[in-house]
Known about the structure:
The protein is of the alpha+beta class. It has helices spanning 23-31, 37-41, 56-67, 71-78, 82-89, 96-120; strands at 3-10, 14-20, 44-53. It has a 3-stranded antiparallel beta sheet with strand order 2-1-3, with helices on both faces.
Amino acid sequence: MPHFVYMLRCAGDRIYTGYAVDVEARFEQHKTGKGAKFTKAFPPQCILRKFELNSHEEALRLEARIKKLSRTQKELLASGDETLIAGLLEGLGETLEECKARVRKEKRLERLEKKKSQVDV
């Protein structure tokens, strides 16, 4: 079963991000004021974007990442910025240990590159 993260344009030009299995049904809930406290206060106008993911866990991770973005980044994401999308989707399926190992490896490679560039100078 697919899982979705969605972004809504709400009253006051605000952006709401949420998780659902059926985005259209969830949007209707939001419109009736039964979806979330935020959308009750700022009724949704339209669905800006939705992302289909393979698992509940991946969807919740993506939702959390989107909620941490700045307003400008959310607007870019809603407009389809491929670089931003790729960055957000990177590593969603990783376990915490896999993520930590990847980050350690990336940092180690950065240090090696830095040392190499210093030697070349």
